[in-house]
Amino acid sequence: MFHKKVKDVLEIYLVGELDEHASHYIRPKLDALIESESFSKMVIDFRELFFMDSTGVGVLIGRYKKLSQRQIPLFLKNPSAQIDRIFRMSGLYKIMPLTV
Amino acid sequence: MKRINKFKMEFDAISQNESFARGVVGAFLARLNPSIDEINDVKTAVSEAVTNAIVHGYEGRENGIITLSVLIDGMLATITIEDKGEGIPDIEKAKEPFYTTKPEEERSGMGFTVMESFMDSVEVRSGKKGTVVILKKELGKCFHMRRLSL
Ligand SMILES: Nc1ncnc2c1ncn2[C@@H]1O[C@H](COP(=O)(O)OP(=O)(O)OP(=O)(O)O)[C@@H](O)[C@H]1O
Ligand SMILES: [Mg+2]
What we know:
heterodimer, A: alpha/beta, five-stranded mixed sheet, B: alpha+beta, five-stranded antiparallel sheet, 5 strands, globular, binds adenosine-5'-triphosphate, binds magnesium ion
């Protein structure tokens, strides 16, 4: 995982696989970034994430809740076909829209 | 090529083995020349069932054993994931989208929904002695469709 700050947008790039095992270190990393950086919008880019299962949905909803307390919107970008299907079936884009 | 081909293995129910388990299934099925999408569908479903065995079946206990077997019959893959854990009291309820018994651990309750949408069929048997999930998928469908249209 790596991140970039572009103006007031925090861009997160997830890399590799996001399953239950990976969630144990990705979750605290995301939370540390959310706490330490100041930004008004967050975008999570999935272009380098080649595997995700339903664990990822829980991780995203958890981060969404933290961000919405601070009224910061979250957007998702570049999911693979599989990951996009999981997002659609869980209705995730209704609360964290797909962006280009 | 022989029509029937199978393997069976046991592994510790720890989270490090999630990627190993789905990777082994992917490698075994690769010789059928399925599409990348089909392999990814199966790997995702296997990951769901294995993760459930670890986090729900054995509830994070590290001494659990998961049995994984794959049977190929022609182009039909049957994958069985078995644990000797807690069991599921109400299978119908467990299969509902967004139903989870672990919301405090940020579970979304989408695992069975993902399995059902990525596989042709999902069968669950569960009792006090554990849970068995049987996943089936006919591979090479894209290929056959292409051949028929020629
Ligand atoms: N192998 C199992 N042993 C015991 N209980 C299980 C097992 N598999 C599933 N369950 C039960 O079924 C429920 C639904 O499972 P499902 O995979 O759909 O969602 P989840 O695991 O809770 O969340 P997610 O998969 O989205 O992280 C679980 O919350 C759990 O109570
Ligand atoms: Mg699950």
